[in-house]
Amino acid sequence: MGFFDKIKAGLAKTKQSMTAAINSTIASFTGENEEFFDDLEETLIMSDVGSDTAVKAVEKLRYLVDKKGYRGAEEVRKGMQEVMTGMLPEGEELKLTTVPSVILVVGVNGVGKTTTIGKLAANLVRSGKKVMLAAGDTFRAAAAEQLTVWAERSGADIVRHEEGSDPAAVVFDAINAAKARGSEVIIVDTAGRLHNKSNLMNELGKISRVIDRELPDADRETLLVLDATTGQNGLSQAEEFRKFCGLTGIVLTKLDGTAKGGIVFAIADRLGVPVKYVGVGEQVDDLIPFNAGEFVEALLS
């Protein structure tokens, strides 16, 4: 099943609400009028697009309607598809050209971080990469055990320490093990929640410094895992991580579990960070690279 089919199936809940509401509003278009644009803006806000992003989208559509003289609903629907596609940066492929390269995975607990790492490892192993997992979340009980299960399932190696160990020490050992074994990609799990935010960010800083010191020339991706079902609340998490981590991409999980898939547009607009993967199910191959054009087509078709 390709991206389009998977994303269309994964957007079933969103299509029942957001897509139906957008298409219903567009179907009411009978020529430019303020009531139509107001209704469309409200529909987008209710779909977790966010107020600022909704205003921008509607203004861009208004410009197209004026410029191209749209008179029918189908023209407006295609215009809306053009606007929404343009608001999403294309999800670039992970840059993993050095040996080893590093993927640092961050996010709060409960968003599916460990599962995402496992699925990502499985994808990379299937593509022929030798993968090393670093169990850097030493603060959550059973985190290393869960990651070990995924390592066995995906065919990746793993380095782990005892619960409560120094996460940066785990990463140091994983880097040395990866060098010794010829691993091409190191995926680092990190703690999602400590007793205060500053400690969490300090630990991430220590891990980053170890990577900088031991692999100064390595390609590095820093992926933030967000739960799509948390909607706008997840954006505040993302903004905090972005301050400290220099994010290169977002992994949006549980997209199949929300009726408000508009969060994808809010992420792109407020964070300026591309969505690189979306999770649309529980199976190992349900983590798929993001494609902006096909996403919008599946959403509005």
* Strand order within the widest beta sheet: 3-2-4-1-5-6-7-8
The CATH superfamily of the largest domain turns out to be: P-loop containing nucleotide triphosphate hydrolases
pLDDT averaged residue by residue: 87
Q: How many individual domains?
A: 2
Name the CATH architecture of the largest domain.
3-Layer(aba) Sandwich
Percent of sequence in beta strands = 5-15%
CATH class descriptor name of the largest domain: Alpha Beta
Our Rg estimate from Cα atoms comes to 21 Å
Compute the number of helices: 12
How is the biggest beta sheet arranged?
8 strands, mixed
Unreliable runs: none
| Secondary structure category | alpha/beta
Oligomer: single chain
Secondary-structure element sequence? Answer: HHHHHEHEHEHEHEHEHEEH
Helical content, roughly? 40-55%
Under CATH, the topology of the largest domain is which? Rossmann fold
State the separation between the terminal residues, measured CA to CA.
18 Å
Short recap of the structure:
This protein has 301 residues and is an alpha/beta fold.
